[in-house]
Prior knowledge:
Blueprint: H1 21-29, H2 33-41, E1 43-45, E2 54-57, E3 60-63, E4 66-67, H3 68-75, H4 91-105, H5 122-137, H6 139-142, H7 150-159, H8 161-167, H9 179-187, H10 199-209, H11 213-234, H12 249-278, H13 280-297, H14 312-316, H15 327-339, H16 348-378, H17 383-400
Antiparallel strand pairs: 1-4, 2-3
Amino acid sequence: MQRLGPDATLNHTGTDTGWNPMTGCLKALANHPDAATSFFNDTFLTKDEDHDFTEKKDDREVKNSLTNFDYLFEERDWPTDYDSEHEESIAGRNNLAVALEAATTGPPAGELPTLDTPHHNAEQTTLMERIVSSIGEDPDKRLLEHGHMLDSMGQITSEYLPDISRYISGADRTDTDSTSWGQTKKMYPVVGEEAVLEPRDVTKVHFTVGQSPDGYAAVEVGQKAYMSQLMEYHLNPDLPAGQVVDDDTEGVVRRIAEKSGEVSGTLALGRQEELAAAGKERDEAYKDSMDLVKSGISGGLGTAVGVGTSFVATRWIGAVAGGATTTITGTVLESMFQDFKSTELEDTEDARGELWQDGLKNDGNRSGQAARLAAEEHGMVGPADAETWARESGAQGFYNAPVDRRRPYPG
């Protein structure tokens, strides 16, 4: 149903006409996280109702049940609306994105978690699983065609980095008693409910979010903060015995750095993909987004800078009240902000190569810096050794990210 021309404008903020109640409902849900979580997980249609939504099962098309999330994110034919400039309004889907941000993370959309934010619960992680799976099915249709949603998706992704790290570790999670899976759970400790994610879908999400300056900044800053806190957590000799991964300190440092590098490398590929067509102005937007994150966290870096509440080390390492994170994390992030730059894009191919090489070097540097600072703080291993292990493995992880732009996702 489309709005008729003579209809009154009900929303005088200018984002839309205000005639579509779903747009306003989603905006309200963005400010009420618990209600948003329940809403998106609620049933929209059951298999027994009269509708045309189907799924393929055993080579047959059968009726599918839909949650409110399924319908709004995947199936709804969004009515056309207009803003005060008579341009097509993006408010509907944008409000959907911010409502999903609140629903999956806990705080109202736009706010970072604090030490008082509850850990992720089962309803939140179930919704996160649906989001990642849905994007994995069709990243272009679900997100890239609606780029204004990517900033919220970046924040959601950032706040689930502990869960994501478990599932891109390569461990066999189907064997819950296996040594590798047990070590992975210790490597990436999660408090609260855990989101169970498919690694291939996660890679698609990272690549897609990387094509947005705001989405890229949210995940890249979160990843560097998370990597730094993992280094401090695992290089502390006072870590309780039940939380120690194993006695191979070098292996622990290298694994943390390598997986962090893979995330950053995939984000960098998304950035390259966007810059290939957008030119210098868009590259400057990435720098602007990083500067915006920096200004937003100065004076108090937040609970792991938006890494979320599921990382036990956030509390274990003694983050102070008020949300400030550790000196190690702050030092690493400050170095990252200083190193991040826009690139002249007169020659697009050369610029992409330069971006890749800069990212490769800087990722290794930041991993090495975090490991060295953690080693200096706790004296568990030699700082020079820790820095070398992390620098090498961080760069290797970055290099391991899928490098063929024609096939950006692992097979």
